[in-house]
Structures are given as C-alpha cells and as structure tokens.
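[scheduler] slot 2 assigned
[scheduler] job type: sequence-to-structure, two independent chains
[scheduler] chain ordering preserved from manifest
[runner] begin chain α
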Amino acid sequence: MCIRDSNYNAVVVNDDVLNLNLPNIFNKVLCDVPCSGDGTIRKNRLIATNFSHKYALRLHILQKALLLKGLATVKKGGKLVYSTCSLNPIENEAVIGSVLSEIKGKVRLLDAHTHSPSIKGDRGVSQWKVYQRRFKKVEYWYSSFADVEDPKAGHRIFESMFPPKDPEISSELNKTLRIYPFHHNSGGFFVALFEKIEDFDYVEPKELAEVRPAEEELKADELAKESQQPEELKQVEESKQGEKRPDYFNPVCFEEKFPEDWEHIKAFYGLSDPEKILANRLIIDQDSRRRIYYVNNPIRKLIADNMLKKANRIGMKVFQISPDIGDLCKYRLLQEACPLFHDKVTKQAVNVDVEEFTELLTKSPIKLEAMAQKLKDKISELKTGPILIRSSLSLERIPLCFMAWKGIGQISDLSSKEDKALLSTYLEYVSRV
C-alpha cells in the first residue's frame, strides 16, 4: 500500500502534441488548449492591463490544429472535450465552427448543457466580428471575410475566424457552453463536447502551413539577437536555464532485452509467470537500466510500435537497481509495487499477524534479538536483502504490506514517512472494522 502517484495505465509525454502519431486509439481526450486567458481576469489583473486582440488572432490557428489533432487521436465512438479559459469567440466558436466544416460528418457536437446539467452557463454564440489593426492606430471590425481588404496587413486574418457560412453548422454552436464569472463565482470558461463518428487521420490545417514560415523567421531573428548578446549576459541566461536536458525514456521490453536479469528476479523473489503475463508488461529504459516499470497492454503495444517518444514517465515503478543485494539479484521490489506483487512473491516474503506487523512498521529499525521467537524464526529463513512484510489484514482484498530490508541482525523498513502514516491509518481503520 502506498500513496505515490504510480499508475500502470498512464504515460507522461513532454512533446509538441502535433508531433505525436497516435491515430484513432483513445476513448476520451481533454483538449485544453493554450488561450489568451481573458476569462481569468478576476485572479490575474495583469491580463486586463495587458489585454490585446492580437493574442486571440495569433492563437486561433494553433487552437484549431490542436483540436483537429485531438479528434484524430480519438477512436470511433470516443469523446473529446475542447476547453479554454477565454470568452473570445475567435478562440472558441470560430475554432469549433471551422473544424466542423472541415471534417463534416466525421464528428458531431454534443449538447454540453444536457451532458452537464449541474454546470450553469450560457449557450454559444453564432455571430461575432473580427478585429484587425492596421497602420498602428487604425482599427477595423469585420463581419465577414469578404469585407477584409487586406488579410495580411497588420494582424493576419483568416476566413476560419469568422462565423460559419453553413447555417446547419452555425446552429450547432449553441450546443457549446459559455461559463461567465457570475454563474459560479469563478473565472470565465468555454467548453465544447465532441463525439467521433468515423475514424480519420490528422491533416494539418492549411492556415498553419501559411503561418509557419513567419514563425520560423521570427525564431531565426530571436536566435540572431541572442548571438549578438554580450558574453556576460549569455552566461547569466545559461545559468538560469541550466544544462540539464529533459530525461526521455528509451523503453524496451525488459524480459526480451535482459532475459538473464529477469530470471534472477524471478528466482530471488519466487515469482511464477508461466504465461508471461508479467514479462510482457515489464519495460525498462534501455539507456539508464535503473528502474523497471509495469504497464498495461495498450501502452505495451504503443511501445512495441515505437509510438511513444519523449516520454518522461511510463507506467508504475516496480523494481529499482540496488547494488547492495549482491550477486543474488540486482533489483529490489519497490514499495509502490506492493499492491500489485503482494500475491506473486513466494520468496523473500513473510506473513505476520497484526501485532507483528505493527511492531515491524513502528519500531524500525528493530534488532532480530529483540523480536519474539516466532517472528524471529520466520525472518531468519529469508536471505539478506529486500523482504515483503504481509499482514493478515486486508483493505479491499489487498493485504496491508510494506517493503523492508533484512540486514545483519536487524530489519529496517523501506517505506517513506507518508507511506508509514497511511499504513498506520489503514491499520487502525481495518482493525476497527
């Protein structure tokens, strides 16, 4: 039992989502896109001070691309929630309308008000104007793209920013949810709920291809400016950023890549895995080889298909290299793996009653000579190294258990203060029940 944030069906990826290739696989996706944040003025007054219409115009194309990418990753029948903390229709209804127009018939918009009746809010709008600033102080408001004299002048204007021309799509926009601050005494939000009808692959919006050269040119200018900075300023900025690069996984199947190590682990802990259920779900970072992770079958398939790149965390940590064990086994079982492995470990495990469990947990480290003879005999049979302490009590059919280290003449628990506190709470609760 532990309280760490381990989950064998989760992956954390540090990458631009537009670079990911995960077509038609997810049941549910939350597409919470970058936005101008004008709905959060109550908690951040600087947004009001620095407000500019250009933020929505710049973000619109990226928001559209992210929504299309998100919908492409959802499987048929799956759902996607698009959300922003902005109330600007160019970031909200304009994005929804343009996406519905491009992939008409492949997704449908569900009524967010019906699906979340407890959330108060107004229905989406179907009419708005688009702002353009030209010649510094000259401002224009357009009702349709046909009225725009020069879309490239000043802040770039695209047709997708305007209300949809198709009346059917325009009428769909009232299914979206606009949450104003007075509805829940909160910030302002926008929510739209999609359901996928037909599988399709991601196609980059044509607008994104048009603005990308300008973005690359801007990045080149920034790099050129950085190269002209004084050497002292460069050193200060480099020290702030640090030299540490993100740690990315290079995941491989542990049993396939390191079969000898897996055999040692099975022999040391007495793991029985005739159908290779464990072996097929254990992965390791091929570069560091420090920890072994347990994942579910869908994640294992993504790894096998080489579809997970720039992943920072994958699955649940179950084993970690420990040179102190000696030649018997290089890896020790971790505390967070106890709920998963409690019934699979047949060696290096000891079953204790409530009194013995409490003593080992609260009096650590405890000398063998200070233990009752019955408990001392149980532990003396185990090899030096990590051991699993299993209680006769259980919570939701999982025995209360923790990892400890059997040294020369004493036992020390390997759980954190938080885990010990939680185990003590569980123990008190289960004892009363």
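[runner] end chain α
[runner] begin chain β
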Amino acid sequence: VNVEEVIAKANEYYESNASEWEFSQMFGEEDDPSSDSDTTGAEDNWISSLAFDSTGRFLAVGYNCGQVVVLTQQEDQTYQLYTEFKSHDSEFDFLTSMEIEEKINQIKWFPYDSCIPALLTTNDKTIKLFKMLEKEGAEGGTEVVVKPKKVFEGAHAYNINSVSFNSDGETFISTDDLRINLWNLNITTEAFGIVDIKPENMDELSEVITSSSFHPKSCNLFVYSTSKGMIRMADLRNSALCDRYAKEFEDTESDIGGFFQELVTTISDVKFSPDGNFIVSRDYLTMKIWDPRIENKPLRVVKFHDHLVPKLCDLYENDSIFDKFECSWNGTSYRLLTGSYNNNFYICDAFGSHVTPMCAVKPTAQQKPTFPHPNQHLEASQKVLHTAWHPNQDIIALGAKDFGYLYVRKTENDPK
C-alpha cells in the first residue's frame, strides 16, 4: 500500500464529503432526573454494545440486563424495532463464588452472505450464536423468531472482553484478560488456545489483553492490544500457538509520565480498517492510526482529551480513568468515530487533520446543535462509550448510558 496515494485519495474524499452531521433519531428510555442514576436498577438499562450487520440493514443493541434489541432500517433511513430477545441470564459460579453478570460485553454479526441473519453475543463467560427467522404469523403478518443455535462456554477462566469473526467464515476468536481462544463455529465443546500470556507465577503478571480483532481479508492475521499500550500482530501460519507475535506496535513518545502513564496508555479498542490496510487503537487520551509496516510510531495521533490531563487525579478517584471507549471506521476506511465525556463524540479524518466535535443530545425546536469545548464543566457520568458506523452509509450509532443516538451526514441535496 502506498501511503501517499491513500492520503491523496482520502483528501479527495474529504473535499467531496464534508463532515457535517445532524441528529436523526434516538432510542431507549431517558434517565429519570429525579432518581439516582447510579442505582443498579437504572444501570440494567444501559447500553453495553452496538453493532451494525454487514449490510447495515440491522442494528443490534446489547444491554447490561442481557437483553438484545434488533432495529431494522426503514426506507427513510431511520431504524425501527425489528425484534428483541433475552441473550444471557445472570449465573452463579460456584468454583469462584462469584456472580456472572448477564451484561452483553460484545455483539458481532456473522459478516458473510447468508439468507438467515446470525449474530454472536457474549457476556463474561459464555458466547452464544443466535439466528433470526421470519415466519408467517397466525394473523397473516410476519413474526420474527430468534433461535439460539450454539453455546460456546467453559473455555475462559477470566472475563471475555471481545469476540471477532474470521474471514474464512468458519472460525472466530474470543479474548479474555490472559488468553485468546480460536473456535470453530460447528464445534462448541472445545476451543484452541492461540495466545496465552499467563505467567507461571501470577505475581509476575505485568499486562493483560484488552481487545482483539481478526484481519477483514487475511484469515491468518489478527491483532490484540494490551494494558501497556502495545498492539501485537500474530500470524497463524507461523505457529499454532501465537506466543511469538509477528509484529509489535508501540508509541514510545508519551506526554504523560509517572503514576498515570500506564492507565492512560491502556488500549481499550483496536480494529483493522475495513480495507485491511491500517489499524486504529483507542486509549484514554488519544486515537492512533497505524501503518502495519511501521512498528515504532503511529502514522497519526488524534488528541481530543488534552483538557482532561489536569483532572487525571479526580478521574482516578471516581474510577472514570478506567472507562473503555470504543472507536469505529467508516466503510471507506477514511473516517473514524469515537466517544468522550459530556456525551461528546468526535468524527475524525483518519488521514487528514480535520476533527468534527459534536454532542449527543436530542435537539429541540429552539435549540441549535451543541458542540463540545475544552473549557466546559466535566460531566464524567455522561459519556459515549459505544460506537458503530453503518458499513455503506454515513449513519453512526452512539450508546450513552441507557440512550442510543443516530446521526447522519448532511448532503448537499438534503431538504432539511
């Protein structure tokens, strides 16, 4: 890949596709301002995962209570309820005497052409594969039936943080703090451990795995990120056990030193671009775009949290510094999306300098769209953690507590 050519094509794209966005719709139930929003009951309704399918027709929304709501795109580009189902229930692990939450940690749609839509959901310990079928109802209408087809469990001693389908259409990986397992979709009874960073003596543990992702086109390549701010690329052709990674990406030029350095450099999300040519990583303060051929520095660093640096002590005290923000590519691999505090979110040109800051709120007739500014009072409880970008259109989905927002890019012929 010629990076100069990519940047030139990206700049052409930016000139013809201005990054101007407008509110489309919202879904979910608003927080009741009279109640304590930090109570457990309120948190059950918080969004914990968002995912578009490969066509963009469906948007799946996972919740802390284990519920999955599937929305479907209408002719006017809005999304309406298609079906909902209970994916996970809370369980008790008698070996560790701990409750396993029903919270949906991640949703991934089966990304290949199939007449029956299918999606993977996971909580801390169990991964499930569901299929959605449309059947004629008793009164002639169409009803949607969701069937659990496979349950993958018993392979993770630690909490699962991510799952990722392989481009071979047959396998997927699941990742916890110390291990990555490779599963075959047709075999639920066993998984193959391909990464294991657990030391013989747990006192020597210096890092954990935070996220992982398969390459969208090369079935042998995957990346995983760590709490030390490193991204490792592994190649399944080299070795069945990928403890010896093929490449390791690290940005050694940190602006933050001392106690907070490792906390703010912990990578919360890592993804290949849809074309497979670049990698994006999200840490607490920045988003970084990497060229896979250059391991010692990122191609670009997008900084949007510099105003939080003086407040790191406060953010540590209220545990906000451990928040895990997601990031998403658009279908062209030219733009990126990520969230922030005060319900702010940022749409960034991956190969340019332009960043569009916005605030996820429902606009009223009198209210103009609000834009974040660095001096605004920090509301750490109001945050956009979860993001998803429609694979073929400029429609983005945002998850902020118990509310979801959809925004669309303005076009020149937009009548609004």
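[runner] end chain β
[qc] chain β: Residues 33-38 have pLDDT under 50 and may be disordered.
[scheduler] slot 2 released
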